[in-house]
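Support reply, case 0932

Customer input (verbatim):
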Amino acid sequence: MGNKPDIIRAIVLIFAVGLVITGFTSIQASEDKRADRAAAPAVGFIQSANQGLNR
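Our regenerated output:
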């Protein structure tokens, strides 16, 4: 019986570390998406302007 609380603590610790890692990666992914959305209109505008010059 003495080993069971240690095993439970280890499982809970691993689960908590997994949650923290998942949280950080999802924050970074959402920041990357925001940066892509902010850059997308400018890229589209530049591409359409370049097409107008090539005609």
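We compared this against your earlier run and they match. Two observations from our side: The helical segments are 4-54. The mean pLDDT is 77. Please reopen the case if you see a mismatch on your end.
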